[in-house]
Design goal:
By secondary structure, this protein is α+β, with helices and mostly antiparallel strands. It has 3 domains: 96 residues, 2-Layer Sandwich (Alpha-Beta Plaits); 137 residues, 2-Layer Sandwich (Pseudouridine synthase), CATH 3.30.2350; 35 residues. It contains 7 helices and 14 strands. Strands 1, 2, 3, 4, 7, 10, 11, 12, 13 and 14 form a 10-stranded mixed sheet that branches. Strand 12 and strand 13 form a beta hairpin.
């Protein structure tokens, strides 16, 4: 029986063109409706862009306290990159704004650049079209209004990056696998790879395949999860709260006993 109040972690395969917030909202609304409560703690462990699919961890109840821990886990992505053109958002959210030569680029050059310049600790400037705060406001809101956005570079870690497929020399396309730390913007990585190759680049596809110990193979489609939550038995709110209260009382008694034994041990030493 699921216990959303005590806390659950749902690993979903987020569909394309849906925001992470929208996925959370659908889960929260359904659970609140079934449990008859007006509000419930539900959150996700790491935003996934609307134009990206893959692993999104959604936590409920007491499990929301683990969000920071889950977000700190390494992420793995499959990224589809097109060379020779840039967009303001570094992906397909916006139209191409400039084109560049790409015919000089070889697979050998790509692999060398990735290993020499994009492995280990690197500095990255997040995209203007992102949720990074600028003067207390999300950068993307300013960027969409045409304002210049100044975001400082951040240090992050790329543990592994490899070329899975390469369309060169016929097509200016790359498919890469990236294993990286929290806070990595794969869109910005595509931008920087294009610059390092003496060209431009943007993402035309992105899939997150891992967050910490959760892989995409363990995830279920959002629609399937919603169907399951609509029919599977749930622990009632009153029962869940009573069980949490009792568990807290037991924990408090154990802490008090441990403290008593510690003081007794210290007194015996004197």
């Amino acid at each position: 029986m699921l216990n959303p109040i005590a806390g659950e972690i749902f690993a979903i395969d987020k569909p394309l063109r849906m925001t992470s917030f929208a996925a959370v909202k659908q889960i929260r609304n359904l659970l609140c409706r079934r449990l008859g409560c007006k509000r419930m703690h539900v959150g996700h462990a790491g935003t996934l862009d609307p134009l990206a699919s893959g692993v999104l961890l959604v936590c409920t109840g007491r499990m929301t306290k683990r969000i920071d821990e889950l977000q700190a886990g390494v992420k793995q992505y499959t990224a589809w990159i097109r060379l020779g053109a840039t967009t303001p958002s570094f992906d397909l959210e916006t139209e191409v704004d400039a084109t560049y030569p790409w015919e000089h680029i070889t697979r050998e050059q790509v692999e060398r650049v990735l290993q020499q310049q994009f492995t280990g600790a690197i500095e990255q400037v997040p995209p203007a079209f992102s949720a990074c705060k600028v003067d207390g406001k999300p950068a993307y809101k300013l960027a969409r209004k045409g304002h210049d956005v100044d975001i400082k570079a951040k240090t992050l870690v790329i543990d592994e990056i490899e070329v899975l497929e390469c369309g060169l020399p016929q097509e200016p396309t790359l498919t890469v696998r990236v294993l990286c730390s929290k806070g990595t913007y794969i869109r910005a990585l595509a931008r920087d790879i294009g610059v390092a190759l003496g060209s431009g680049a943007h993402l035309y596809g992105l899939r997150r395949t891992r967050v910490g110990s959760f892989s995409v193979d363990q995830c279920e489609p959002l629609d399937q999860l919603l169907d399951r939550l609509a029919s599977e038995p749930l622990v009632p709110v009153e029962q869940a709260q009573a069980e949490l209260l009792e568990a807290e009382r037991v924990a408090n008694r154990q802490r008090a006993l441990a403290e008593k034994l510690r003081k007794q041990k210290n007194n015996d030493q004197y």
